[in-house]
Specification:
By secondary structure, the protein is mainly α. The protein is built from four helices and no strands. Helix 3 runs antiparallel to helix 4.
Length: 139
């Protein structure tokens, strides 16, 4: 009445993981996610550096690049050249950088990466401080 199944199910995990499908550990996934957040923060930091020269931003960009490189196994992050043109407003860039640093902080805390957590918290503080005078002036 019924024809027996002659092939193995694609959902079967009896034989172990499928070698055609890459599997990563949770730690590897968190490294990838954290490197992405830090690379995005680095890009915004470079945009800020182009708009407003600052030794703090220069140092932060170098530290961010080091951490991205470490998380990506030594590969240096791609960086935009310093163009000096003004794209988005500085306040919008600081807000975006603050949000990215917050995301990086959450992932760094979940993977217990103290160095990145400290760096992300410092960047959040710096971007908050950069926004405060602008917010007070607008009220």
């Amino acid at each position: 009445m019924y024809e027996p199944i002659r092939t193995k199910s694609v959902h079967s995990t009896v034989d172990g993981p499928n070698p055609d499908f890459p599997h990563r550990s949770r730690e590897e996934e968190l490294d990838i996610q954290l490197a992405g957040h830090l690379a995005a923060l680095l890009a915004v930091t470079d945009e800020l550096r182009a708009a407003e020269a600052s030794a703090d931003l220069d140092a932060a960009a170098e530290r961010l690049a080091e951490q991205v490189s470490r998380l990506r196994g030594g590969r240096t992050p791609v960086r935009a050249p310093m163009s000096g043109h003004r794209g988005a407003g500085a306040a919008a860039l600081h807000q975006r950088a603050h949000a990215l640093a917050g995301r990086a902080l959450v992932v760094a805390a979940s993977r217990a990466d103290t160095a990145v957590a400290i760096l992300a918290a410092e960047r959040m503080d710096a971007h908050t401080a950069a926004l405060e005078p602008r917010e007070l002036a607008s009220h």
